[in-house]
Specification:
heterodimer; A: 321 residues; alpha/beta; four-stranded antiparallel β-sheet; 12 helices; 14 strands; 34% helix; elongated; B: mainly alpha; two-stranded antiparallel sheet; 1% strand
């Protein structure tokens, strides 16, 4: 659906995007992560035809994409990070949506487009304020309006740049549900963000970009699995015998232990799942484990590891440095 | 219809609607019509048994002295030969022309800067359709004002026992084409520059340059200009709407209809050329702020 080959963007001597190869399949929610200045926005602007690449090619819908292909833009919906509403503030939310419906000529294609506008306004709780001027909207309301504007013409690909920044928790949930619902309808969604915890809930696959280079691109689970150095197992016991932390170390795969109240935290190597071995050992010792849980590395932790602390580790797991 | 043309028409429609919502266009029209009123009533009081005598009215005395000083007495006599309407028309079109062209220059640069054009280009709109929308808006609002002006001047002619005359309509067409060319120049400048202030300054400077060269061709200074910067004034005249406007009017005064029409064609071609150049510039520069 979206493919780039050797994409490069240079601003003078500064390389914002360096030889980027992306491959995004149809129906995927693809998270594009990176810290500020990593090259996310430059990549997105190139994908949208707003900025010309210094080198490389972009393919959308298996066709080479150039900014001149205005017909192709009918299949793309975009939510930019910043919204220049300053020039549209005299319009009501409904009029704003109608402007874009007219631009996409939806009346000719679908007949009455007001139903679609009303449906989308309802989805994000803006129906009640449809006749209010945009000037009176809060940041969260503007963000929601921007998202439904991008969905108005029923695009095949949706590009979202920081879609939930500035939203309250209810707004975040509404937008998350909307994104997931649109994806279930078969839409391919490309999200650029730094809100990692949210990406973890939404994306099928993620890519991490750093200093213009693609550091990692994989499914969420396998990327996290690759990044885990050691596993940590938390065991809640009815009573925690004195010195259990040391005695359990006789098991050869245990690397370290700590205790906290009735919880025993054990670090093991990541070769395989040792929970069965540990519970067997504890039962033999006459102890009853109430809970055995392996702590998962969150995307946020993985992201920090990759970008700031351990690029070498990342390179080992398949990234390109 | 192409995506580009469709988008240009949709945006132009909104822009025209927006113009009717804001006071600027009404104020410019009102100023234009008020000037017409004062100039017509001044002209009527400047007529005695010997005909038009600009010394009879203080307003016309000032205008007459200024125009004869700048362009010469022959020019002044020709201008008022068939009544006041040619002059009234030139004056009353200025407020609307300035309002439309300067607001285009200002808004285009501002909207480019704040990313409004970029937002639209995420849809089936590009920079070219955006500036075409401004051009269509300016032309439509100009036509609407010209119609209003014709109505107003016709009524004034009827009330004061004057006639608009055929020459007035020839001039009206010439001025319309001149404005078209000036609008395309304003678009070209908007596309070239990055800030509203510099775009407005450059546009005003270009208009003044055209006017200075035009005035130079009427006055004694023309010899000086010709010898000092003949090439420069020749080059400027090639793209100056005022030069072509003056040429077209002199052709119609001499009865050369074909030449008059050819000049209108040249102005149309030049307008297209400016739009094409703007298209190429925006294609290279992009709309990203």
């Amino acid at each position: 659906m979206i493919r780039t080959r050797g994409l490069v963007k240079k601003y003078g001597s500064f390389t914002a995007v360096d030889n980027l190869d992306l491959n995004i399949s149809a129906g995927e929610i693809y998270g594009f992560l990176g810290p500020n200045g990593a090259g996310k926005t430059s990549t997105m602007l190139m994908l949208l035809g707003i900025v010309k690449p210094t080198a490389g090619e972009i393919f959308l819908f298996n066709e080479k994409y150039t900014p001149d292909k205005l017909d192709m833009r009918n299949k793309i919906g975009v939510v930019p990070e910043k919204h220049p509403y300053g020039v549209w503030t005299w319009m009501t939310a409904f009029e704003y949506m109608q402007l874009f419906a007219d631009l996409f000529d939806l009346k000719r294609i679908h007949g009455n487009c007001n139903d679609r506008i009303e449906y989308l306004l309802l989805q994000v709780d803006l129906y009640g304020v449809r006749n209010k001027r945009i000037a009176e909207f809060s940041r969260g309301m503007l963000q929601k309006l921007s998202i439904i504007r991008a969905l108005l013409h029923d695009p095949d690909i949706l590009f979202l740049d920081e879609p939930i920044s500035g939203l309250d928790p209810i707004g975040i949930k509404q937008i998350r549900n909307l994104i997931l619902a649109e994806n279930r309808e078969g839409r391919t969604i490309f999200i650029s963000s730094h809100l990692l915890s949210e990406m973890e809930k939404l994306c099928h696959r993620i890519a991490i970009i750093y200093k213009g280079k693609l550091l990692a691109e994989d499914s969420m689970n396998s990327l996290l699995a690759k990044l885990v150095k050691d596993r940590e197992i938390l065991i809640d016991l009815e009573t925690l015998p004195h010195n259990i932390g040391n005695t359990i170390k006789e098991l050869p795969f245990i690397l370290d232990t700590t205790t906290n109240g009735n919880t025993l935290a054990i670090k093991v190597s990541k070769e395989r799942d040792f929970r069965k071995d540990i519970s067997g050992y504890l039962i033999n010792k006459g102890l009853i484990p109430l809970r055995i849980e392996e702590t998962a590395l969150s995307l946020e932790e993985a992201f920090v590891t990759i970008t700031n602390e351990n690029i070498d580790l990342f390179t080992e797991i398949g990234g390109r440095e | 219809m192409s995506f580009r043309m469709h988008a240009a028409l949709v945006i132009a429609k909104r822009r025209i609607f927006e113009s009717y919502l804001s006071p600027g266009y009404y104020i410019a029209q009102a100023v234009g019509l008020l000037l017409s009123y004062f100039l017509i009533s001044g002209f009527v009081s400047s007529i005695d048994s010997s005909g038009f005598n600009y010394m009879l009215n203080p307003l016309y005395e000032l205008i007459g002295r200024s125009l004869s000083g700048t362009f010469g007495l022959t020019f002044l006599k020709k201008l008022f030969a068939s009544g006041p309407f040619q002059f009234v028309f030139y004056v009353s079109i200025i407020p609307v022309f300035l309002y439309l062209s300067l607001s285009t220059v200002f808004h285009f640069c501002l909207e480019k800067k704040v990313g409004a054009i970029e937002l639209l280009t995420y849809g089936p709109v590009d920079g070219t359709s955006y500036f075409l929308a401004f051009f269509i808006k300016d032309m439509v609002l100009t036509i609407l004002y010209l119609l209003l002006l014709i109505l107003f001047l016709s009524a004034a002619a009827l009330l004061n026992n004057l006639v608009l005359g055929l020459a007035f309509f020839y001039v009206l067409v010439v001025v319309f084409f001149m404005m078209m060319l000036l609008y395309t120049i304003s678009i070209m400048i908007s596309v070239l520059t990055d800030s509203s202030a510099s775009a407005i300054a450059l546009y005003i400077a270009v208009i003044f340059l055209f006017l200075i060269v035009l005035m130079g061709s009427f006055t004694i200074i023309s010899t000086y200009i010709t010898s000092f910067s003949s090439v420069l004034s020749w080059v400027i005249n090639w793209v100056s709407p005022f030069f072509y406007g003056g040429l077209a009017i002199s052709f119609i005064e001499a009865g050369y209809i074909v030449n008059y029409l050819l000049i209108l064609l040249v102005m149309t071609v030049l307008s297209c050329l400016f739009l094409l150049l703007s298209h190429l510039v925006i294609k290279v520069k992009g709309v990203h702020s």
